[in-house]
Every structure is written in structure tokens, then in C-alpha cells.
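During the reporting period the student researcher (J.K.) took over the structure-prediction task from the postdoctoral fellow and processed the backlog of single-chain submissions. One of the processed entries is reproduced below for the supervisory committee.
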Amino acid sequence: MTDKTDNEWKQRELGALWRRNGKNQKYLSGYIKLGDELEEKEVRLIVFTNKYKSENEKAPDFVIYESTPMENAQKQQPMASQETQEEEVEEDLAELLK
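J.K. obtained the following C-alpha cells:
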């Protein structure tokens, strides 16, 4: 028998995030589901802590970006390994947060 509370939470679920250890910092990656049951779209995300938080008390604690699909990165850089591409994405996003 399924708990009624579990079903309610499952119906309200929008996505999930996982902790990751990057070359320069820790971050979260995952997805959210947008739209309704008829036209649901899954959007991949990457979340970094805001390095400028100490400079501005009103700044957000985290910054969320749409994640670039790896197949697009591979088309642009066919000789680079997936691990190298992931590190480059992490470095690029870390630069944006500086």
C-alpha cells in the first residue's frame, strides 16, 4: 500500500539535483520538468554558489544555468574528450561567477 503523502509529493515533483565535484569547485547538476502532462519538457541545469555573495548581501546564494548538451560541445570540439569538455564548461562557468 502506497502512502498518500508520498503520492502527493511525487505528483508535485519538478525535478532533481545531484552534488558534483568539479575541478575548481563543487556544484549541483540535474533537471527540472516544465510544462504540463501533455507538453512536458525536461531542462538540464547546473547550479553554482555565487562567489560574489560576500560583496553584496542581497545577491543570491546560488546561480542557475541551463546546461549545454554534451553532443553540441562534441560537434564544436570533436577531438576533445567528454571529461575535458566537462572541465572546460566548469571553468567557463566559474569564470562567469568571478
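The committee noted the following: The first strand starts at residue 15 and ends at 21.
J.K. will present the remaining backlog at the next meeting.
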